[in-house]
Known about the structure:
The protein has 81 residues and is mainly alpha-helical. Helix content is 41%, strand content 7%. The chain is built from 4 helices and 2 strands. It has helices at 3-8, 24-31, 46-57, 68-74, and strands at residues 38-40, 62-64. β1 (38-40), α3 and β2 form a beta-alpha-beta unit. The chain starts with a helix and ends in a 7-residue tail after the last helix.
Amino acid sequence: MRMAEFSDGHIPRAININVMDDSFASMSDSLLQKDYPVAVYCRSGKRSKKAADILSKKGYQVVDLDKGFDAWQADDKQIEK
């Protein structure tokens, strides 16, 4: 998720790792644990598919919120800013 999008609102306890950043893979390895499932999302669900693919290939259990953050908000689920 882009930083501006993350600042506008995100799922509680989420951390922001931008899949478009060249350091995405190394940042993921330093911030995530392979022992726990990882949920990925972006605004509409397109970039999260790329993140899910990269993380899955690295051995993470990945859940892709494929409809994205917009759908999360439309369903009136909790967010934080």
